Amino acid sequence: MAASHFDKAVKLIDAEHARDPKTINVNGEDVPYELHYAQKMSSYLEKRCPNAPDVLRIAIRAQHFRRWETPRDSYPMTKVGYHAWRTYLKKRQAEQAAEICIDCGYSEKDAGRVASMIRKEDFKKDEETQILEDVACLVFLDDQFEEFEKEHNEDKILTILRKTWGKMSDQGHELALNISMSDRAKSLVSKALAS
């Protein structure tokens, strides 16, 4: 049986994720970080929206597509530099994911939809883009937050947690409150939400 458009797209996306030189140890095995991240994104999508359409599943899988090629320190280490870096990445990742969709047989319309979600256009008004944002926030809280909080002062951490919470929907909040965290991380989340 021939592979579906979706299966072909995920295979191509994951092949690129597998090229990430940064690795993370998962259950005793070194895994390219962006492949791990994409798998976590898909896992949380299953919890947040188990019947997600292909275009959302692809956008979720490709959200950090080839991100390692443009490291954060390639832009000024300022707030303005951070936003410029994120804007560039969203545009680039959206274009590359759309190309993969077209190459795998998706319509221009579907490819454009994937790109729009990766750019997070109208995420507070568009349900599928909101789901993508929820999933990205859940992965941050589950997979990145405890390391992140070690690198920053408490005021910055609380600000980031409040911003993260503000981006999420009620369903995202519900899933976030069920994430297993260290006592320190739980304490910071509680403190951020209390104020």
SSE layout and pairing:
Blueprint: H1 5-17, E1 23-26, E2 29-32, H2 33-48, H3 54-61, H4 79-103, H5 108-118, H6 127-150, H7 154-167, H8 170-176, H9 183-194
Antiparallel strand pairs: 1-2
Evaluate the radius of gyration.
Answer: 17 Å
Major sheet size, sense and barrel closure = 2 strands, antiparallel
Coarse structural class: mainly alpha
Q: How far is it from the N-terminal to the C-terminal residue, by CA?
A: 55 Å
Strand arrangement within the widest β-sheet reads 1-2
Mean pLDDT: 93
Helix content: 55-70%
Q: Give me the number of helical elements.
A: 9
Strand and helix order = HEEHHHHHHHH
Strand content: under 5%
Gross morphology: globular
| Poorly predicted tracts of residues | none
Query: Can you count the beta strands?
Result: 2
Short description:
The protein has 195 residues and is mostly helical. The protein is 67% helix and 4% strand.
Question: What does this entry look like structurally?
Answer:
The chain is mostly helical and 195 residues long. It is 67% helix and 4% strand. Strand 1 and strand 2 (29-32) form a beta hairpin. It is globular, with a radius of gyration of 17 Å. The termini are far apart.
Give the tags:
single chain; mainly alpha; two-stranded antiparallel ribbon; 2 strands; 195 residues
